[in-house]
Amino acid sequence: MERYSVINKKYPREIVLLKSTPCKWGKCTFCDYILDNTLDIDEINRTNQVILGNITGQYGTLEVINSGNVFELPPVTLQAIKEVVHKLNIRQLFLEAHWIYRKKLEDMRQFFGIDIMFKTGLETFDTGFRENILHKGFHYSHIDELKSYFQSVCLMVGIQGQTKEMINNDIQLALKHFKHFTVNVYTENSTSIKPDYQLIKWFQENYRWLLDKKPQCEVLWLNTDFGVG
Question: What is the CATH number of domain 4-220?
Answer without folding.
Answer: 3.20.20.70
